[in-house]
Amino acid sequence: MADDKHPKSPSVWPTVKPFVNGGASGMLATCVIQPIDMVKVRIQLGQGSAGQVTRTMLKEEGLGAFYKGLSAGLLRQATYTTARLGSFKILTNKAIEANEGKPLPLYQKALCGLTAGAIGASVGSPADLALIRMQADATLPAAQRRNYKNAFHALYRILADEGVLALWKGAGPTIVRAMGLNMGMLASYDQSVEFFKDNLGFGEAATVLGASTVSGFFASACSLPFDYVKTQIQKMQPDAEGKFPYSGSLDCAMKTLKEGGPLKFYTGFPVYCVRIAPHVMMTWIFLNQIQKVEKSFGL
Fold first, then answer.
1. Are 283 and 30 in contact (CB under 8 A)?
2. Quick check: 33 and 271 in contact, CB under 8 A?
3. Global confidence as pTM
4. Using the 8-state DSSP alphabet, how is residue 195 labeled?
5. Quick one: residue 268, left, alpha or beta (phi over 0 = left, psi -120 to 50 = alpha)?
């Protein structure tokens, strides 16, 4: 019986491993990045520059304000990053098998990244909505505040007040943004690792740092316009007559383009880049360290 059991345990872990590693690295990165994310959301909601927003938050709400929505951020990583990094690893492994073990061309990595982003965002969309709502709550007039206690309270209230489908409100732009971000992040990281290691002869630490920096930049550049639209859709409130300012993502994009031109989509780009790139870098660095520890334990 013992012999029968033994072959089964290795077969489960390799499948689960990329998902566990992805979620853990994303959650660790979020704990470090959360304060910058709070500032980014406030800038996009039109509360001033990074310096102004930081000073106002410290003065009026204290240090705890920077970690508002941390539970939703961690829940989002536990769902979204677990699904996207896990599925990317599985997709690329399948593609390498189909390529008879040869390295994948960039376009195949990009396709795997797009698909992994869509899968991750579909799974993580409810937590993402809870995070945006919790972060935007403090900016609303007292009468309009939803006063969520934590991510699970937010999800429960959304379910009770607005129904199951409301959990996927803004899921369209969330998924499109995730596809752009993950195409930029995942494909460029794999490609950069190959370039730094094989072409430039970098060591492991320099390769991970260099590739994660490149990955962070491309993730930011590919996703900010979608992120801007997504934030506008998720935080919109009906006016006195019950009408919403935008009928959907495309309407929001067209109105934004008409009112502010293409650069309007890059509102808060320096802060967004400073927030997205380090999170991407930290995710890769933590992932690398987790894999090293697992290797040392023979996992």
1. no
2. no
3. 0.75
4. I
5. left
> Which is nearest to 116 in space by CA: 165, 217, 184?
184
In whole angstroms, give the CA distance from residue 40 to residue 51: 11
For residue 10, what pLDDT is reported? 56
What pLDDT, on the 0 to 100 scale, is given for residue 6? 47
Long-range contacts formed by 226-229: CB under 8 A, 24+ apart:
226/173, 226/176, 226/177, 226/180, 226/181, 227/177, 227/272, 228/44, 228/256, 228/264, 228/265, 228/266, 228/267, 229/173, 229/177, 229/253, 229/256, 229/265
CA distance 108 to 123: 23
| Separation CA 134–CA 21 (nearest Å) | 27
| Token code pair at residue 200 | 């430039």
Which pLDDT score is estimated for 5?
47
State the pLDDT at residue 7: 46
Residues 196, 206 contacting (CB under 8 angstroms): yes
Mean pLDDT, consecutive 10-residue stretches, the chain (299 aa), reads: 49 88 94 83 82 89 83 87 94 91 89 94 88 78 80 89 86 85 93 91 91 93 86 80 83 90 87 85 94 89
Contacts of 184 (CB under 8 A, 6+ apart): 113, 215, 218, 219, 220, 221, 222, 223
